[in-house]
Amino acid sequence: MIVKTLHENGLRSEHCYLAAFASIAASYVAWGISQQAEDADVDRADRWGIFIGHWAPSFFGLGLALANYEKK
Q1: Is 1 inside any structural domain?
Q2: Tens digits of per-residue pLDDT, 20-60?
Q3: What is the distance between the alpha carbons of residues 49 and 55, in angstroms, rounded to a whole number?
């Protein structure tokens, strides 16, 4: 039901795959910026990178669900 609604609103599997790869890149960038810009220790930079890095599997999973729906 959710996948159908997303598809009807114009979201395609390619969009989700692109978002997944972008979140991987954003994770690395956030880690690097946080490590240099903040006075906090390295743990905080690692947490930022991991937080954003957890988005990628969600986008990949949604992309797979949409790809299966698009085959129908």
Answers
A1: no
A2: 999 999 988 888 887 777 666 667 777 878 888 899 999 99
A3: 11
Q: For residue 42, what are the CA distances in angstroms to 23, 33, 38, 56, 69?
A: 20, 11, 9, 22, 42
pTM for the complete prediction? 0.81
Of 18, 22, 51, 20, the C-alpha closest to 34 is 51
Domain that holds residue 36: 12-71
Quote the distance between the C-alpha of residue 14 and its chain's center: 13
Please check whether residue 56 lies inside any domain of the structure: yes
Q: Are 65 and 12 in contact (CB under 8 A)?
A: no
Residue 72 has pLDDT above 80, yes or no: no
